[in-house]
Amino acid sequence: MFFKVLATDKQTKARRGELHLAGQIIPTPVFMPVGTQGTVKTLTPLQIKETGAEIILCNAYHLCLRPGAEIIKQLGGLHRFMGWKGAIITDSGGFQVFSLSKLTKISNNGVEFQSPIDGSKLLLTPEKVIKIQNDIGANIIMAFDECVPYPCEKDMASVAVERTLNWAARCLDSHNNEDQALFGIVQGSVFEELRIECAKHLEKMNFQGYAIGGLSVGEGSLLMNEVMDYTVEYLPPGKPRYLMGVGFPEDILHAVERGVDMFDCVIPTRNGRNGCAFTHLGKVKILNSRYKEDTGPLDEMCDCYTCKNFSRAYLRHLFVAKETLGLTLLSLHNIFYFQRLMQQIRDSIERGEFRSFKEQFFSAYKNN
Amino acid sequence: MFFKVLATDKQTKARRGELHLAGQIIPTPVFMPVGTQGTVKTLTPLQIKETGAEIILCNAYHLCLRPGAEIIKQLGGLHRFMGWKGAIITDSGGFQVFSLSKLTKISNNGVEFQSPIDGSKLLLTPEKVIKIQNDIGANIIMAFDECVPYPCEKDMASVAVERTLNWAARCLDSHNNEDQALFGIVQGSVFEELRIECAKHLEKMNFQGYAIGGLSVGEGSLLMNEVMDYTVEYLPPGKPRYLMGVGFPEDILHAVERGVDMFDCVIPTRNGRNGCAFTHLGKVKILNSRYKEDTGPLDEMCDCYTCKNFSRAYLRHLFVAKETLGLTLLSLHNIFYFQRLMQQIRDSIERGEFRSFKEQFFSAYKNN
What we know:
By secondary structure, the first copy, chain A, is of the alpha/beta class. Chain A is 42% helix and 20% strand. Chain A has helices at 45-50, 60-65, 69-74, 78-82, 94-99, 126-136, 154-174, 192-205, 221-232, 249-257, 267-273, 305-309, 312-320, 324-350, 354-364; strands at 2-8, 15-21, 24-28, 30-33, 55-59, 87-91, 102-106, 111-114, 121-124, 140-142, 181-186, 209-212, 241-243, 262-265, 276-279, 282-285.
């Protein structure tokens, strides 16, 4: 993996870059749709590709529970398993092991937990997490981190940072597949001192990229932006910066402004399945009866398959009639919307007009 | 609409024809995937087209209940509403009104029933059913018929035939859109005398095509074949013959042999959603643990998107993980399978080798 910054905005820290990865050049800032269980929910790989997405995020935690990392390895790795020819990043499972598992016991060695699928007792250590991600075979893999809930006492957050740094070093030590880039994850909750300490230490370890983890967990947009303000400064400018699990279009704009290059989030697909579509004017809740006879597309500015072929009235009918095609068509549109937003962001940075693009965006987009 | 028989098999009654419809030439025997509520479940119109399907069946009963025939008319008709550029046939709702509705009251005038969606009291008459289908705007529409359950006393079946004939005449009288072909439906349960009486009377009314209704309702394959044996004889050779709601690959082969040209069935999509795939060797139940590490496609003889891109192991994973993409990929494969089967049937009739094709089919296909 190779990362190159092509242009930096003059008024903000926004940057336009390129991620050279697995024979592809992925322009940044980039949004990565989420395919937790080895499938971006309701969409075929062909449909995902047609949204413009070139890299997706899958989850090592979910995939090691089911179908199992070794099975994926035997079947030729995740790209082949799921039929996705683009790039893949896997999350290490740090976030999931704390948020989804029961009876979690954490020690410096690792995390013991019960599988939510079959109740079996499992142990994840930094070494095991790297082995799992090596087996799965994504192009970018993540260090194993301890993700604290929000709000969190500083003492607890501090212990988690120490452990995250210790585990980060062990991940680096046990990772020996140079075809896979390994990213470190900055923790520290909303404490400036902890975030900076974590970022500084990780920077010295020389990861190939740096993620900001433990955000978008309930702290709110303002606090999230603050954390980015002081954290990004301590991340090396020549490496990609990845804000994990974010987010809404407005969050992405705020983060790009602060120098973040990569994003992933379930929002376009999850909201799509719940009947919520993103448009340049804001969200459309398709079950609203006002769309019953609406012949217009979800978004008049959109060129996606859904908008080119189907009216709001038809999409509403699909949701009212509980037809799966509705989930597919809204997910497809939403991912396309996010990809187009990132394209516009990249174009505006290249033109040196990111700030005015952001203002235009907010003047049209009503966050209802 | 115009129908032409191109070739007739010498050893059987199988025929190879063409349905000229809405600017398209649809080769017969043809299988029509079912899109009950204005969507072939889990598939986009683009995906349906890629299976080779050129005509689909939708249901006037379901569409008049939701979203309503007048709304579909206002929105430009069903083709535009659902974004399907191929041909459409609508079933009149005769079958559904008896099988799905509650508190059904039948009289010579029509059928009174309670909407299963909102409990409202509704009345369907032959005239209303034609009006609904005119509004929906399919290329082929069906007469309103009385469909009796199986088994059924001959007296009751006889009354239903009389009513079906009376309603057929009223449907013809009230239909005045020459862009839509109207088909009559032969009823009569499993009684030779009634089927023949019904077929003879309908033949005189000069419909543009003839359907055999009320089969595949529990009478079994042998009895169904018997009914076809004596019914098809009384249908005019120059008009298309449509066996409604059928069926499994083996049923289709038996019916083609008896001179049937058109088929529709939910089997490829419903079975697909239940994890059952059709292959040239028989059915594959994808949840079976034997496929856990199976790198092969569903069917080695198949060129569909699913078989070209995904292993049985991945498809099984999708079903185990309850991922919607599994439903889509198996539905897609199954419809493709049915389209390919019809193509093989047509080719074999052209070559005068239908019977040997049928034998080959059964020697490979294990009905497990």
